[in-house]
Sequence to fold (336 residues):
Amino acid sequence: MSLEPIEPDTALELYLADKGNELAEASLEAHEYRLGHFVRWCDQQDIENLNNLSGRQLQRYRVWRRDEGDLSPVSEKTQMDTLRVFIRWLETVDGVEQDLSEKVLSPDITPEQNARDVMLDSDRATSVLAELEKYHYASIEHVTIALMWHTMMRVGSIHALDIEDYYPDEQYLKVRHRPETETPIKNQGDGERLVALSDDLCELLDDWIESQRRDVKDDCDREPLLTTAQGRPCKSTLRVYVYRWTQPCRYDGECPHDRNPAECEATERDHLSKCPSSVSPHAIRRGSITHSLNNDMPDKVVSDRANVSQEVIDMHYDRRTERERMEQRRDYLDDL
Fold:
């Protein structure tokens, strides 16, 4: 095969142009951000032509990116999986040697790391919600995932919401513990609270209620905010929505795991969690909490809004790196 010389920045430009019609804008921006680090590394290494890129160089980049970005294994996996998709695309345009993408290594995530570190980061959350807004606006899947991301609620709290718990004029939701009618919430009475909503989220809820919500009652004669033909969707159904829509092939049009979506077992309802990239509702909660902390929402506000103690946030939810924490503290130095 005869390769055609191509510079890293040109390759990225062509890749983004090619994917522009396939990916949602948010997904495209996420790819540009992640691959921008690779282009920057190539510049530092004086790599001007990707034709000669080798597996050894890709491994050196992996180590550099892990150290330079202070990445957790989960974040490193996201970065390298995107790079593998990019290298695979380069193979199709004679930019690199065939099968080079198979030499892009990515960390294996252990169950312990999965329980502690996996989260839906803000880039992926934006991509998922952009896809749902564009093609499935105000569907129950769209509303469910938007509520999880923007309110930091546990799946049990969202499951427990009735239409009367939504106050559109005042723009808030009332989370209530009602075990006698089959919707207990974690922390019971201590978990009851008012959750403020943004203009955009209220607009989505209003459109859901106006055009999509089924006017049905549950088995306890209550009117759920989220409904299906059978009444209130069970919590396992809400989890299915999350596992399905956090699969990259759903919102990105690409599988970073070299699988054919048409044949992949993980696209079936009973096996959605078998996709290595799909996440649980708890990972959305963790990602939302970390995103809020990264955007300088005070710890106390996050604690109250998410109904979780500061100690638990520090131990289980806050996935900011030490460098990110340092840079946020630096922002306050000028005020001293």
